[in-house]
Automatic annotation (TrEMBL):
Domain Outer membrane lipoprotein BamD-like intervals: 133-255
Organism: Rubrivivax albus
Single biological process term from Gene Ontology: FtsZ-dependent cytokinesis
Protein keywords: Cell cycle, Cell division, Coiled coil, Periplasm, Signal, TPR repeat
Ribonucleoprotein as UniProt keyword: no
Magnesium in keyword set: no
Domain of life, source organism: Bacteria
Compartment list: Periplasm
UniProt-listed PROSITE patterns: TPR
Coiled-coil regions listed: 53-87
Swiss-Prot/TrEMBL TPR repeat ranges: 171-204
Task performed by this protein: Mediates coordination of peptidoglycan synthesis and outer membrane constriction during cell division.
Protein name (database record): Cell division coordinator CpoB
A GO cellular component annotation in the UniProt record: outer membrane-bounded periplasmic space
Length: 255
């Protein structure tokens, strides 16, 4: 009886121990399930985060490449703008040079045209209009006389009087032609030239000097009589001229 009673008392306790182990096991399994679920959730979150981070890295890399390409394009554009600016400045300089060249060309053309056009000339107290060819030939002949080249001077002045018989240079050209002939010792030619000047232009300022030069040419030809008549003409026609003063001295030397 005592043994039976002891057994009866021990059964609830054993049953209680078994219940506690089952609950603990369930609790452990549940905890494991929750931990696993949390691990899976965390892994998924980490995977998503990694994926997002990778995407962001890729986007950043793409953005960096885009920025680099944009920067390269900007540098190219800057270079092109600088080149265009340089080309524009060069173009402006070229245009300015062309404009100045055109202006100079026009000015040169106008100058040449003015030189070719007949112009008013003042010579020996007289004014007249002469062509550029007349002016150039007369000036070259006078320069030749100054240089002692009487042959060239005589030829140039002779050509001038032949080509332009009515030239305004006529009296002055004859005066210097006579001097050139005298310089080259063509006294006979000088006599004729000086006589033509006085006959055609008795009121010309060079007429008194022409008569004096004529008398000197006649004296060089040993024609003293003609020289004295010429000096008498000078003293009678132009008594107040400087040539008349020199003529008096020359006349005295011929006596």
């Amino acid at each position: 009886m005592a043994a039976a009673a002891a057994l009866a008392l021990s059964l609830p306790a054993a049953h209680a121990g078994l219940f506690d182990d089952e609950e603990a096991r369930k609790a452990i399994l549940d905890l494991r399930a929750r931990i696993q679920a949390n691990d899976e959730t965390a892994s998924k979150a980490i995977a998503e985060l990694v994926a997002t981070n990778t995407q962001l890295v890729q986007q950043v890399a793409t953005l960096q490449r885009s920025l680099l390409e944009l920067n390269n394009q900007l540098e190219v554009l800057r270079g092109e703008v600088a080149k265009l600016r340089g080309d524009g400045e060069q173009l402006l300089r070229d245009v300015a040079t062309l404009q100045q060249g055109q202006k100079d060309a026009n000015q040169n053309f106008d100058d040449r045209l003015r030189k070719l056009e007949p112009q008013k000339v003042a010579l020996d107290g007289r004014e007249f209009v002469a062509s550029s060819d007349e002016r150039q030939l007369y000036d070259a002949s006078i320069a030749a006389i100054r240089n002692g080249d009487f042959d060239s001077a005589a030829k140039g002045l002779g050509d001038l009087l032949e080509r332009w018989p009515t030239t305004g240079y006529g009296a002055s050209a004859r005066f210097w032609l006579g001097n050139a002939q005298y310089g080259k010792r063509d006294y006979k030619g000088a006599v004729g030239t000086f006589r033509d000047l006085v006959k055609a232009n008795p009121d010309h300022p060079k007429a008194p000097e022409a008569l004096l030069a004529l008398a000197n040419s006649q004296a060089e030809m040993k024609d003293t009589r003609s020289a004295r008549r010429t000096l008498d003409e000078l003293l009678k026609s132009y008594p107040d001229s400087e040539a008349a003063t020199a003529g008096k001295e020359r006349l005295a030397s011929l006596k």
